[in-house]
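Bug report

Summary: structure tokens for Zf-HC2 domain-containing protein differ between web form and batch submission.
Environment: batch mode, default settings.
Steps: 1) Submit the sequence below via batch. 2) Compare with the web form result.

Sequence submitted:
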Amino acid sequence: MPSEHETVGAYALGILDDAEATAFEAHLAGCEWCAQQLDELAGMEPMLAALADLPGSGSTPAIGESLSARPSPRLAEKLVDEVAERRAQKRRRSFYMVAAAAALIIAGPLAAVAVNGGSDGGRQVTATPAQATFETMADKKSATDPSTSVSATVGMARKDWGTQAVLELKNVKGPLKCSLVLVAKNGQRVTMSSWSVPNWGYGIPGAKTEESKKPLYIGGAAAFQPNEIDHFEIVTFEGKKLVQVDA
């Protein structure tokens, strides 16, 4: 039997019977929390009713339970999106985002990161697994920017949850902080990973030290499938594009 706190959404939707509605209204008179949640849902009844009537795959009860348990403006916005967009696509995208986040955690050891923020005295972490993964990838795209002379190759692998990527970056000097940004065909932008470039740089032709000669290999992940990707950008934290790689 749900508590009175958990019936706010059902009350807003108008699906309580007379006895339940009377009991909730008595509770509402002395409960500031429920009154606040009900105010947030004011005017939402038609939209909620439309959502409840939508045919689909059974996700509506779960949404209804979330509404009853934790109604908020943020959740209300999500419900509006559910009505406006196809729910199947919305659920798939949400699942992919969670999977991609998990993949980033798992892929963490694959990333090669200069942890000192750009000083020559810092420590460089070299991740051989990232390079090994990159070399096994069959789908690779490369580009060199004519103005910055920075070269990048992005290796891609399709996953059930989206795309795994490994970046090979060359001829870039620091100190810089950069990101690998995926730009989808629908215009959405997703940061796949970020890192620091030390003073000595990565993949510098004719460099005097081995660490400067080596390219950077860094892993990333995103919810989009390879055929949904338009291009990749390597950009600094200040917004300067170093190189773009078309997918």
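Above is the batch result. After comparison, the two runs are identical; trailing whitespace caused the diff. The chain has a mean pLDDT of 73. The beta strands are 139-144, 151-159, 162-170, 176-184, 189-197, 216-222, 229-236, 241-246.
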